[in-house]
Specification:
This protein has 209 residues and is α+β, with helices and mostly antiparallel strands. Helix content is 37%, strand content 16%. The chain has a 4-stranded antiparallel sheet, with helices on both faces. Strands 1-6 form a two-stranded antiparallel sheet. The protein is globular and about 45 Å long. Bound molecules: flavin mononucleotide. Flavin mononucleotide binds next to strand 4.
């Protein structure tokens, strides 16, 4: 088994993994349009749109239909709560996320409700729910930017997260804004760069290792 894995790796090294900004095969427009922007317009997100985002997450598939996701959201109109989530972010995220009118702390329950055993799929399921939420946001003209760069322990303490749950990702959400208003050239360049992905030949197989 190890030998076979090695062969695969050597083949990959011999053939450098290519990225492309092109869609290789037809996909849904919303998948093509979605991107993790950093520039936000100075415009609040309407409550009915916030509700639709969570409705999209609600219908995500999950292991044993456990739906282990829990979302704590705060708008800028709730400065105390918004700041508590914002304060958990790493500095590299704070510099642009400060303009986001909506922040969400996405958590997952660590164990199955039905038997209290560890749920090995909980983060996976949360990721699926976040993906649906992001696609719904794209349809509503909103941008979602997920961030793993935040202090989990701080979130646990300042937001009183119970031991049964873990904070997994923070999402900055809002309407796309003016790229020129981003605080530095590096962020402006990243915002305008073509999104790139490895081509399918590097992650799709039709034969065993
Ligand atoms: C779990 C997760 C954690 C991420 N953490 C960060 C982060 O801390 N800071 C950041 O700027 N982007 C973060 N991102 C965004 C990714 O960098 C982004 O999705 C990736 O570069 C692809 O770009 P796209 O979403 O525009 O297609 C994160 C995305 C995910 C899914």
């Amino acid at each position: 088994m190890i030998k076979k894995d090695l062969t695969f790796m050597i083949e990959s090294i011999a053939q450098p993994m290519k990225k492309s900004g092109e869609v290789e095969f037809p996909v849904n427009q919303l998948i093509q349009q979605r991107r993790s922007r950093r520039a936000y317009a100075d415009k609040p997100v309407e409550l009915e749109k916030i509700n639709s985002l969570f409705e999209a997450a609600r219908w995500a598939p999950s292991s044993s239909n456990e739906q282990p996701w829990v979302y704590l959201y705060a708008t800028k109109e709730q400065p105390d709560l918004w700041n508590k989530i914002f304060d958990t972010l790493e500095i590299g995220n704070k510099i642009w996320a400060e303009k986001a009118p909506l922040l969400i702390l996405a958590m997952n329950r660590k164990t199955f409700l039905r038997n209290d055993k560890p749920n090995g799929s909980a983060r996976f399921d949360l990721g699926a729910a976040n993906a649906l939420l992001s696609i719904q946001a794209t349809e509503l003209g909103l941008n979602v930017h997920q961030m793993g760069g935040f202090e989990r322990q701080k979130a646990i303490e300042t937001l009183n997260i119970p031991e049964t749950h873990e904070p997994t990702v923070v999402m900055a959400i809002g309407y796309p804004g003016d790229v020129e208003e981003l605080p530095n050239d590096n962020l402006k360049e990243r915002e305008l760069a073509v999104r790139q992905r490895y081509t399918q030949e590097f992650f799709v197989m039709n034969k065993s290792f």
